[in-house]
Design brief:
Number of helices: 25
Shape: flat
GO molecular function, one term: transcription cis-regulatory region binding
CATH architecture of one domain: Alpha Horseshoe
Structural class: mainly alpha
Radius of gyration: 32 Å
Helix content: 55-70%
InterPro entries: Ankyrin-SOCS_Box (IPR050663), Ankyrin_rpt (IPR002110), Ankyrin_rpt-contain_sf (IPR036770)
Distance between the termini: 100 Å
Number of strands: 0
CATH class of one domain: Mainly Alpha
Keywords: ANK repeat, Coiled coil, Repeat
C-alpha cells in the first residue's frame, strides 16, 4: 500500500513536469538573466528558454536584465533573440525605466536607449525614467537621460517633478546639481502648488542644499495653492534649522495663507517647544494678527497647545487676551476645548484677564463603579470615561482585541488566550479605578478654584 502511494505521488510530479516544462525553465531563466554573463544566457536560450516569457509579477527577461544585469552584451543578446524591447509591465514600466531606476551600470541604460528613445514616456503613476533614476539616486543614469533629451520638468500624475523627487529621496548633491545644470526649474510647483524649496525643507535636507537652491534663484517666498511658503513647511515638518536659515535669508514671516493665518499660527498649534515661537517673533512675527475668521494666535494656542509655557510667552509678548473672533468667541472659549490646560495656572490667568467674565461651571465627579463597569463590559471604555483613553485605554483595547482574535483563530490554545485575556481585563478594571481616583482629585481642585473665581469676580 505504501509503495502504491509513493508511486502515485511520483507520477503526479512527473506529469506536472511533463505538462509545463517551459514555465519552470523560463521562471528560472528570469532569475538567471539578472546576473548571467552572455555565454551563460546564450546557453539557456539555446536550451529553450523563452526570451519573452512573463512571470507572475509581469516581468520579462529583458526587463529583469535591464534592471539588474551588469553586462551590455546580455542586453544585445536578448534583443537579437527576439525579446520584445517595448514591453511594458502591469504598472507601465519599460526596460528603459527599469534600467534608469535600478541598474548601477549606466552603460546598461545606454544600451537600452540605442533602440528605445522614448525618454519622456510615463508609467501608470506618471513617472518618467528621470523620476525613477532620481528616486533611486542614480546620478550616472540621470546624466545619460538628460544628455539624450529627457525633459527635467515633466511632472507625474501629482505634478511632482524629477528635482522634487530627488529631494524627497534624499539623493546626493551631484545628482541634484546635474538636474539643475540641465535645466530643472528650481521654482517648479506640483499640482498643489508645493515648490521645490518646500520639498527640500520637508525632506530635512542639509542647509547647504537649501542655500544651493537660493543661489540658483529659487524664490524663497513662492506660495503653494493654499498660500503657504517654504517656512510654513519648515514649521509643519519640524525643521527648526531650515526655518532659521530661511528667515535669515529673507523669508517673509507675516505672509498669510488662504485662511489668513501666518506661520506663527502653525507654530503655536503644532509645537510645544517654545523655540519656534521665540524664533519667529525674533524676526518680527506679529502676535496679534487675526485670520480671516477673526481667530488670533493666542486663540489657536489656547485651543491646541498643551504646554502652558506657550500661552505665557504669548502673553509676555503682548498677545491680546481680550480678542474676539468674527463670531464673538473669546480666547477662554477656545481654552475650554483644551483638556490639557484645564485647571492650570495659565487657565485661571486667562479667565482673570478676560473682561467679559462668566460663571465657570463645576465638573461632576466620576463614578468609580461606572468606570469599573464600563471597563468590564467594553475594552477601554472605562479609560475613555476617566479621560485617559490615550495611551492606556488604546493599549488595553489593542491587547484584548489581539487576544480575542488569537482565541478565535487558534482553537488548540484558546483557553490559554482567554486566561491571559481575563488577567488583562482585571488589570484594566483596576487601572480604570485608579484613573477615576486621580481624575477626581483634579476635579475637586478645579471645582474649588472655580468656586473661588466665581465668588471673587461674579458676586
Amino acid at each position: 500500500m505504501k509503495t502504491k502511494i509513493n508511486l502515485s505521488i511520483f507520477f503526479i510530479i512527473v506529469s506536472l513536469l511533463i505538462t509545463n516544462p517551459v514555465i519552470a525553465e523560463d521562471l528560472s531563466f528570469i532569475e538567471l538573466i539578472k546576473n548571467a554573463g552572455v555565454n551563460e544566457a546564450a546557453d539557456a536560450i539555446a536550451e529553450g528558454a523563452d526570451v519573452n516569457m512573463v512571470d507572475e509579477d509581469g516581468i520579462t527577461p529583458y526587463l529583469a536584465a535591464a534592471a539588474e544585469n551588469p553586462y551590455p552584451a546580455v542586453i544585445r543578446l536578448l534583443r537579437r533573440e527576439g525579446a520584445n524591447i517595448y514591453y511594458r509591465d502591469s504598472s507601465g514600466w519599460t526596460a528603459l525605466m527599469y534600467a534608469a531606476a535600478y541598474n548601477n551600470n549606466p552603460e546598461i541604460l545606454r544600451e537600452v536607449m540605442r533602440f528605445d528613445r522614448n525618454l519622456n514616456l510615463k508609467n501608470e503613476a506618471g513617472n518618467t525614467a528621470l523620476h525613477l533614476a532620481a528616486e533611486n539616486n542614480k546620478r550616472g543614469n540621470i546624466w545619460y537621460l538628460l544628455r539624450f533629451g529627457a525633459d527635467p520638468n515633466l511632472g507625474n500624475n501629482r505634478g511632482v517633478k524629477p528635482l522634487m523627487t530627488a529631494y524627497q529621496a534624499r539623493s546626493n548633491h551631484d545628482l541634484i546639481k546635474t538636474l539643475i545644470d540641465w535645466g530643472a526649474d528650481v521654482n517648479a510647483r506640483d499640482n498643489n502648488g508645493k515648490t521645490v524649496l518646500a520639498y527640500a525643507v520637508s525632506a530635512r535636507r542639509n542647509i547647504s542644499e537649501l542655500d544651493y537652491l537660493l543661489k540658483n534663484e529659487a524664490d524663497i517666498n513662492l506660495r503653494d495653492d493654499n498660500g503657504k511658503t517654504a517656512i510654513f513647511y519648515a514649521v509643519t515638518d519640524n525643521n527648526l534649522n531650515a526655518l532659521d536659515f530661511l528667515l535669515k535669508n529673507g523669508a517673509r514671516v507675516n505672509l498669510k495663507d488662504h485662511k489668513g493665518e501666518t506661520v506663527l499660527f502653525y507654530a503655536v498649534r503644532r509645537h510645544e517647544d517654545p523655540a519656534y515661537l521665540n524664533l519667529l517673533t525674533s524676526y518680527g512675527a506679529f502676535v496679534n494678527l487675526q485670520s480671516y475668521s477673526g481667530k488670533s494666535v493666542l486663540m489657536s494656542a489656547a485651543k491646541n497647545n498643551s504646554n502652558p509655557k506657550i500661552i505665557e510667552l504669548l502673553l509676555a509678548k503682548n498677545a491680546d487676551p481680550t480678542a474676539r473672533d468674527n463670531n464673538g468667541k473669546r480666547v477662554v472659549d477656545y481654552l475650554e476645548e483644551n483638556r490639557s490646560l484645564r485647571g492650570s495656572d495659565v487657565y485661571w490667568e486667562l479667565h482673570k484677564l478676560e473682561p467679559d467674565k462668566r460663571e465657570i461651571e463645576t465638573i461632576e465627579l466620576k463614578s468609580k463603579f461606572q468606570a469599573a463597569l464600563m471597563s468590564t463590559v467594553i475594552p477601554s471604555a472605562g479609560h475613555a470615561y476617566t479621560e485617559s483613553w490615550w495611551p492606556k485605554g488604546a493599549l488595553f483595547l489593542l491587547g484584548e482585541g489581539a487576544l480575542i482574535g488569537a482565541a478565535i483563530n487558534d482553537s488548540d490554545n484558546r483557553n490559554s488566550y482567554l486566561s491571559v485575556f481575563a488577567v488583562l481585563k482585571v488589570f484594566e478594571v483596576i487601572d480604570s479605578l485608579d484613573e477615576a481616583e486621580k481624575l477626581n482629585e483634579e476635579i475637586i481642585d478645579y471645582n474649588q478654584k472655580a468656586e473661588e473665581f466665581n465668588q471673587k469676580f461674579l458676586e
